[in-house]
User: Fold these one by one.
Assistant:
Number 1:
Amino acid sequence: MKRRMFLLAAVTALATSLLAPLPAEAAFPDRPITLVLPMGAGGSHDLHARGITSILGDILGQPMIVKLLPGGAGMQGTAFVAKANPDGHTILFTHNGFDLLVPQTQKVTFNSLKDFKSIARINYAQPMFITHTDAPFKTFKEFVAYAKKNPGKVNLGHSGVWGALYTPAVQLIKETGIKVNMIPHRGGGPALQALLAKQDHIGGIFATQARPHVKAGKLIPLAVIGDTRIEGDPDFKNVPTTAELGFKDVSFTMERIFMAPAGVPADRLKILRDAFEKLMANPSFKAFMKNIGEPVQFMKGEEYDKLRPGRHSEYTALIKEMTKK
Amino acid sequence: MFDAFLQGFQFILRVDTYLYIIIGLAAGMFVGAMPGLTTVLALAVLLPVSFKVEPMLGIPFLIGITKGGIFGGSIPAILVGIPGTGASIATCFDGPALTRKGQARKALEMALYASVAGDALSDIITIALIGFFATLVLLIGPPEVFAIILLSLVLIAGVSGESGLKGAIAAFLGLGLGFIGTDATTGATRMTFGLEALSGGIPLIPLIIGVFAVPEILGAVESKAPRFVSERVDFSRVGERLRWHEFRASIRTILRSTAIGTWIGAVPGVGQVVAAFVGYSAAKRASKHPETFGKGDLDGIAGPEAANNAVNGPTMVPLLTLGIPGDNTTAIMLGAFVAHGMRPGPQIFQEQGPLLYGLMITMVLSNILFLAVGYVLLKPFAYAIQMKKAYLIPLIVILAFVGTLSTGDVSDLGIMIVVGLVAYILRKLEFDLAPLVIAFVLAEPIEYSLSQTLLYARGSILHYVFVARPIAGAFMAGAILWIAWMSVRHRFKRTPQPTEP
Amino acid sequence: MEAEKPSLPSAALARLDVAVAALIALAGAALSIAMPRLVLEGGIREAQEFMRLTPVFFPRLAFGLMAVLGLIQLVRSVRRFPGAAPATGESWITKYQNPLVVAALIVAYAYLIPWLGFSAAGFAGLAFLIIALGGRGWREILPFALLAPLVVRFVFERLLLISLPRASFEVIAAPEEVLMQFLSRIFFFLRI
């Protein structure tokens, strides 16, 4: 009998202690935040995320959990966040390709512009056109000329349809009308391997991956995509940009962005945006980015949101051009 | 170069290196043992831990996780027939049979020893021949990959189960299922039937859990026996350890499987799953008593286990010498290397020789720790299998759910269950489901490598394959010859039977 | 896992064998023929100029072969049918009662998760499963069914950082959350 009473008392105490601290209005965030990555493990986003989440978790006061949702070329993860409870505890870490371009190539259940708001952009990566030492061309202009004279003979390797290395190539094709043999690879790694093995004549790559091979003299960078050179980079500051060389339409760079569902209340969105500003100033974060060799090019969420509609229509035109027949 | 080696040697004299390796191995084994949790996930999650310490501690830590992970997957494979990782599927043939006979501990120990041996030997071979492997990597392109996959399929075919026809049906079903989702070559979406959950294709983890775990659970439930281990077994013998002579009988298998795994590791895109299967089928073919395979033959454990661990060593080669990751695991390792300030690539030997050598030596030594850690962790698992089914099965169910939810959301649970129920029915009808999973896993690589080959060939395919890429041509010719030989042999061996089974 | 039975053990299974083989043959044929309709072209044309392979080719081949083999299997199953062992005393429902119940419970459990959240659904799911499998005595069942989901959730969500579904009812979700935080605090306190 005594034991029964004791048990009952203990259960009641436990129950009350569990229910008691339910505050009327929960502070944000009041539980772990899920950071969704719509891609598989091991890419550059994953690497960024692992470093960022630990620091950001401290800033926000709640742990940040990375959830990998690869699938559907990034659409599965994106849709997941679009549909998630807009209380600010689920956010997306993606790039402009998945945000605005790929949704226009498939049937998706969300509206890129209406269903998401930007929290911040942390940096962007400029791909480079690069070739190996035995190629029949040594500069970018030589490549374009050669491709024009030999349609369908040049193997151009990329990392996946509508990926970060594919889109600039497609922009180039649209602007110059050259015909090349587009060879798909499963990701940047195999694309690089094909280039080193001299199976591909030309490919795309990011600075970090290219560096050891350029230094060893195996690969030659031809042009940086975009309108500004990679300043301050000892190995690549002399590589001309596509804009300089006269190919203005070749402009796709991969911007790493954090997005939240559009329904998130304004005050919570502000907390998230402010947290990222604090992140940029954080010394551990700066050291981490330096270690992984990536720059920091912060842009506030509000400003990035202004750029999105423009990009969206740019991609619409590009897709229409490339998929018509 | 030699003094770089000596300098690297001094790294092994630090105690904390070993501590981190041990923690890594244990964490890897734990994660590997959970069906549905992949080593990749463990690496990704524990990566920040490795950031906080210096490279000589952080990187062996991560390497320990990969080694432990592959072995960990064999534990549920042996105990309950549910592979913890894709690489352990081939262990499910003989593992559960041994458990039912009360020889779970022997099986686990054989798996451990075979894994350690395969891993250690392939590490040594990789280090010794690193230059050779580096050149090999650049010679292997899509035609070679296609040819090797074809060869592997041919070698694996017909090795498991009795009914070849049903196995073939399962294989084509798996192949078809593997094509659901987005086509990598053109970006077209296929067979998704408007379901968003399928837009990325059927994810591998729910498929494996569905195909293996669900039928095992339902099958175990069929019999009214309260435990997995047959009641007729003498319980005092369940904890019996592997005897030396039993291990010695499998040494040749282990060596063969190590060779197989090492070769497959050098080819990007093929992977541990295929290595395990080829190891198993090679062991079965070479055995003097192939009929015992599938009923509890320790050789059937040694074969796949040595092969799938042997893949580890060579996959590091493109990573270290070219900075190119071969699969997800090495992709994370690359991130770790970069974050620690190492620069994998052609210059790495000159620039960071001592560190690199130190790393390679620790890789070899960690295998000894692997043995110790595995040994300690085996015992509780071997005894845990004796838990009553009424409690063990719900526990397996909840872990299976967690595994599926780890890289996916609730719709993946649905996929897992649907696949599972179908698999259960097929199993009852004596369909062998291992070909289904292999074909599923290989669907994308086959189509992909073939498409790429055609793109490179630009129309003149025969010329391209046999003249421009002779290695691929040799493999394909080898595959065709093998098929021819096997069917001829089969025709001569088969005696006419009154009724077709 | 495979036994060498010359024929299937019961008439019910033999019938199922025929049905499944027919289904395979039909499904394979249907998928193979309808494949072009199932392939939504989101892809670019550029790649297809040089390639003879379209996205339709391989799936069509796979399912087509499956259909052919399914047909052969159908013929075999039908021929084998008369030779099946006569029905034993049990009807197949009683024989497969356990697996059916467990399968139904697993499906129900999966449906409960997005509704009740991982821990609560786990409690219900585990409890019913254990009872269905023959576990007895609420003194053993309740603590296990209560603790196991919580422990699993804690280990995987807090230590391994895998996010698990929350309940859609705040009443259930909030205490679960508080409990997790409470456990985290104990854990980190002990770790020091």
Note: Chain C has a mean pLDDT of 75.
Number 2:
Amino acid sequence: MKHDDQLRQVPQLRPVRNESGIPIQALYTGSDVEASGGLGLLGVPGAYPFTRGIHALMYRKQPFTMRQYTGFGNAADTNRRFKFLIDNGQTGLNVAFDLPTQCGLDSDDPLADGEIGRVGMAVDTLRDFEIAFDGIDLDKITVSLTINGAAPTLIAMYLALAEKRGFDLKRLRGTAQNDILKEYVGRGTWVFPVLPSIRLVGDTIEYCAEHAPKYSPVSVCGYHMRESGATPTQEMAWAFCIARAYADEVIKRGVPVDEFAGRLSYNFNIFGNLFEQVAKFRAGRSLWAKIMKEQYHAQQPGSMWLRMIAGGGGGGLTLEQPENNIVRGAYYALIAALSGAQTMALCCYDEAYTIPSEYAQRLSLRTMQLLVEEMGLAETVDPLGGSYYIETLTNQMRAEMERIIAQTDAAGGIVKLIAEGTIQSRVSAQAYRMQRAIESGAFPKVGVNRYRSESEADPKVEMHPYRADDARAQIASLQQVRIARDGAAVTRALERVESDARRGVNVMGSVVAAVKAYASVGEITQRLVGVFGRYVEPVRFDHREEEAIA
Amino acid sequence: MTVDKPIRVVLAKPGLDGHDQGAKVVARAMLDAGFDVHYTGLRQTPQQVVDAALRADADVIALSSMAGSHLPFCTRLKPLLEAAGLGGRLWVIGGNLPKQDHDSLRALGFKGVFQSGSRLDDICDFIKANRP
């Protein structure tokens, strides 16, 4: 107590609560661990409840996969960057698609004008996938597709590509983001209304469970909700609520939980307070295991694993003094490594300005490699385990996540709260408060509200060129595919997609057949829109509802 | 005592870009500043922006663009706004706007150009000072 009294007299330079609202003490001891619930859920790595890691040996056996988010221009441009990263030691690929592709539009759609190949690679047909992955060994390099609204079509393309290359789909690994519920909260590449979209996620999970059982058809993203203003505990709690919504959709079709839950994966953010972040991941691992075991009666350990990519950190990076982002990125990578993530990716220092340069991408990759090769992060499992602070915070963060989940359920569940715009309004109110706190200096950001230099020279950032010629070439290449393909077969395949969608049959079989016939992303999406309609965004800026799901 | 009519703003997300955190934060700042804010939501075409501005009889047409398509979009929007008689209204744009594009945006008629990281009060004050 005497120690505490002394500490109370020290002026506080940092907020005394972390972003999740948990009070932070100046010192933690064994009695704090006990008061927060003790070490009953600590266990050992590789065993329930997996607080310390989902595998016994973690990185000692296999370091985290390094998977920078990459894609721009057309498939050939992207293929060159993929090979550059692989040549530099990257162990996985994470594909960025342009906005027309993400929104289910072909490159020759009037709405695609000015957006083709801008923030990712343009994909119209299977032909683009053939070019993008040419010369890349899909057995050695696992591929993650960052696609949501158009996910059924793009997953189908990947499966079709693998099959064409002679892969046994039973052995094919890889991941699709395919988390539509979070798209309504942040990121915004939705196409269909909420309920049919959940059905389509269910279709992909069910189809993969049967045909490509090692493929991960969904990566549930707390990440973008955090970027949109969610706290770290909300990020994880709401991601679990969303994952349960998808699991419920599949289970109601009669698929046993252990047949698909092992291939559910997650995507979480890593910016913010280092200790809060590490505690978030440790807490989340045990909470997800508990949910799967106790609520879903999963039997297989794999069904209880919180498999995740932890990365990005875009929300923590700044436009001001962008070179500071190199250092932030290194700390964020440290957070992800200390947290036992299976896969890591880092936003690049120039990403607030442009599509990252090769130079910036390699720097991010080297940041991750340094942790493994030089800093000892791959040698010992859960190295912060046993710290009074980390264990106390892990217990407190877990309790807070459980409270948020219970409150979300009591308010009608995550699907209802997203469909009516409540979560969106809540996170944007929080983002607004955070922006005000940054502007007032109450929430410190180095180079922004601290150590800012007004007379700074323009940052040395190499702007990625946008070539309108590439967009025209993409349209020309789509038109060539349309001429070369068997038009009658395409029409028949698209009619089957539409009729399966209408009859409530799993659409994946017919979508795979359609992409094999070189039907385009836009053509397939259009058929599905004809059945499901389009999402209409609820626009709300109320403050009242916040209390309901505080 | 005269009471100023609230400034009517149509705040739009042009094109396919789904990054709306910034737009919604700015909308809240404008609401707090007493503006009458009409937020369009995502995926607005140039014509939809014009229609929203006409419906609201907007004093201010504000765009938030994060995904790089600001120049082609604004180039298409300008003649439509002018044809609809909205040339005299205040046009502003914010978001991820590289410095080298600022002059082009101003030349297209966007009097206020706000790079990411702009202060909310600066945006609102600019609008108050430049309202038509």
Note: The longest strand of chain B covers residues 60-65.
